[in-house]
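Predict the assembly for these six chains.
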Amino acid sequence: MPIVELHVLQGYGPEEKRRLCEALTDAVRLVVPAAPEAITVMIHEMPPENYARGRRSRAGAPALADPAEIVRDYLRAMEARRTDVAQGFLGDGFTMHFPGAPPMSRLQELIDWARPRYRFVKKSYEGFDAMQSSGSAALVYCRGSLSGEWPDGTAFDGIRFIDRFEIEAGKITRQDVWNDIAEVKSTA
Amino acid sequence: MPIVELHVLQGYGPEEKRRLCEALTDAVRLVVPAAPEAITVMIHEMPPENYARGRRSRAGAPALADPAEIVRDYLRAMEARRTDVAQGFLGDGFTMHFPGAPPMSRLQELIDWARPRYRFVKKSYEGFDAMQSSGSAALVYCRGSLSGEWPDGTAFDGIRFIDRFEIEAGKITRQDVWNDIAEVKSTA
Amino acid sequence: MPIVELHVLQGYGPEEKRRLCEALTDAVRLVVPAAPEAITVMIHEMPPENYARGRRSRAGAPALADPAEIVRDYLRAMEARRTDVAQGFLGDGFTMHFPGAPPMSRLQELIDWARPRYRFVKKSYEGFDAMQSSGSAALVYCRGSLSGEWPDGTAFDGIRFIDRFEIEAGKITRQDVWNDIAEVKSTA
Amino acid sequence: MPIVELHVLQGYGPEEKRRLCEALTDAVRLVVPAAPEAITVMIHEMPPENYARGRRSRAGAPALADPAEIVRDYLRAMEARRTDVAQGFLGDGFTMHFPGAPPMSRLQELIDWARPRYRFVKKSYEGFDAMQSSGSAALVYCRGSLSGEWPDGTAFDGIRFIDRFEIEAGKITRQDVWNDIAEVKSTA
Amino acid sequence: MPIVELHVLQGYGPEEKRRLCEALTDAVRLVVPAAPEAITVMIHEMPPENYARGRRSRAGAPALADPAEIVRDYLRAMEARRTDVAQGFLGDGFTMHFPGAPPMSRLQELIDWARPRYRFVKKSYEGFDAMQSSGSAALVYCRGSLSGEWPDGTAFDGIRFIDRFEIEAGKITRQDVWNDIAEVKSTA
Amino acid sequence: MPIVELHVLQGYGPEEKRRLCEALTDAVRLVVPAAPEAITVMIHEMPPENYARGRRSRAGAPALADPAEIVRDYLRAMEARRTDVAQGFLGDGFTMHFPGAPPMSRLQELIDWARPRYRFVKKSYEGFDAMQSSGSAALVYCRGSLSGEWPDGTAFDGIRFIDRFEIEAGKITRQDVWNDIAEVKSTA
């Protein structure tokens, strides 16, 4: 039965309300073993003049972009080797953590590091999981399999991978990558 | 400002309400860029007789256990080689997916598979992330580093890993593991 | 989806809350074509000190008895010829309206009037319908069939009847009766 | 003091909201002995995007017509001998139950049955009572007196009657009729 | 944390809502030692058709003018010797109570009484305090210092004063005045 | 019709809730011209575990004492010349402002200043008005008439006075006094 009522300042669009309804439903389901169909969410919107905290009206802030969409767009730009576009998704202090590599902070470092390792790589996605951490970052996990070509031109595919992203204020601030490339190579 | 009101049947304890408050706060923060201190959650509890759906009173269901705790307890049992205890955390259809291994479904398979690979392994955790998926499973990600001994008795540590768990109705139904063991071995 | 929240002073028992949940659900269904399972009712109870109208706390009033139960008990007493008990269910200004009889106000009038018409009569009920009118009276309709004996001792049964009752402040103030006795007799 | 809050999807008109307010007020009065003036109803309307059940937005359904109006219109058409119009108010499986008649399902049957009984009949109404049953049907009771002409052309009036109607999804599915015609005839 | 929700019929403007938010916040602060920033007010507005008391819709009444503004405007008119304007702020039964004067009810009485006492007087305000009394009157206190000229043309200033006003239905019905004029004169 | 709902952490007593109901009702009446009987207040109390701001439960703070009671008790102690008791009601930075006196901060200063002015003075109260200011202080106004004896032993009475108090965190921090003593003396 759980019923969730959310009171927010008006200004959120249908897509943002959909994300709120889903996230609030799933938040309840993490603790209460109710079927999704038994969980109701109502969003009550208010014009700023109908809301006050500390005796003062407050204006609503624009919604945060969907962090999973941010990650998808970033990965798409990287796969297309559009580092200029990809760079636009990165926040201050961005770091990357790849298997067998020191932490890197610039996309060019990554490209240089990857060159002796594979000609190119493509990701097929099995799933994206997004959540807000208890801290300031939203988290996005995406996993699936890699395909591409080794430096010698032979093809590979079906190599398991998982990426973890931290997104703060709409910018990616950290990427952690795990995959089975070494495992596959060692058994090649 | 967002204010969340949750109406539930009574019967949840302080710890369960804490988890609900946190999950609901974080659900809002995934979309609305409000500081946590600006997000209020109120839980309204009702005795069963004060709630009806379809003209009938309903009884509340016991809370689901914290999926992160389930995973912690399972991993602790595995590390202590208490497979009997660990087995108790597993649900029907459980499968494990390790780097370089075929899918396994029984813990003994895992132990047999690991024996030629390392004498033992311990996990140091950097973080746990838990969320409800849009499907029936709760998800737990845990990551950190592995230490242990290779079959020849030499020690290793600092090997990055990440595990992904699916938990349904309080039981682990799937474990996916990625780590840098092959990477480390290949550069040894 | 409709959700009904009722705020009342505390003091109502589970049975009274059940009646409230049912009546509120059905009130919604009279206008909104929702399945009962899609209609939720929540009752929020308050101690008197948590409620004020006109700056003053208010005490809750005891619930009204279920008018259908009042009618059932009254009819049971009449059938058992316990006019003393039946009289206790009647309010000031009570009147009865039977087919072919002038309005009557005392139970003894009814008994005298019925004596030449049948030795006794029993009611089998097909259904009770109770509602609050827009005025001060609750209404109860009951319908079914009559069985009994004519003055000459021959039996009858299966004669359709319907009664309409008005109940104010827990007392029956009016009874209207329709049945097919004359129809049956005329075709006998 | 009782206060009723109804949350519904937007799309109901002023007349439909008036019916909801009245029905909810009367639902409370059936149990709580509060003066109508002490009962407040608030309707909170929501656009579909602000409401989710099972993680999905839901659209509101058009209101059900007022069942008392359906009955009034049907009876008006019957009195005007507009059987084509009257037929439009009847649902599948419609049956009629009149004194001394077998159950009938077609209006022509009723007309044929009535012909030897009276030339015409008109209804004067004393009151309509409408409610939602606990099942799928709305119920309408109407009562008053009949006037008309017997087959021999003599007039009659003041004959008590009561009708009971069941309405499902806006269509009449059952009509039960009781009256004092036989009583009056037997004493004529 | 306190959260205040106000349900009112629609029709109040932003300025009136601001006054409501402030007054409600301060009402809570009179009892609960919360920082203003921890007190949230939400105003839920309803069209008349969404609200019923006693089964009937109700129309909202226009807001009362800010009583402090009424007093400011009245005092401004008096200082400008616009008694015609000032008179428009006064309600039936208005009385004035000045130090050493009998109660007066007409502005001309005040002017006549003041003439031998000072040529003119101006008010500098230190503060206005407005509240609703438990009775029908709103109360406004204003205090500060008087400057002006004595009848002999010598100037004075810095004389403390306080006025208390009762306002009913937007009209001033009573003015009480205290000041240090006599004290200052006695020590002159 | 206005309806006020207050959500607070549990822990307030009946007297404190009464003060909240009154203050909230009067806050609405300052803007909305509704009869008190048309204004409803509901207080919803929550255990700390059912409330979170910033993901954390919060404990409620004890209620502030009624500022009018604080002032009454202080004035009673002063009249009884219990300066030790009166001192206990005063906060840091307390100042007094009397007609014709420089600001004073210690009660003994007041006593010394008053000695040549009157032997004793008693207050008869016409009314107390209390409110929360927009700042941190609660305000109490009390007014009425003074009686007592002049230094020469002759009695006086009926001298108008008004006091204004500022109370912060339960302590009086400022007292302003106006009265007609000089006026009365000057006309004696």
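The two ends of chain F are 54 Å apart (CA to CA). Chain F has five helices and nine strands.
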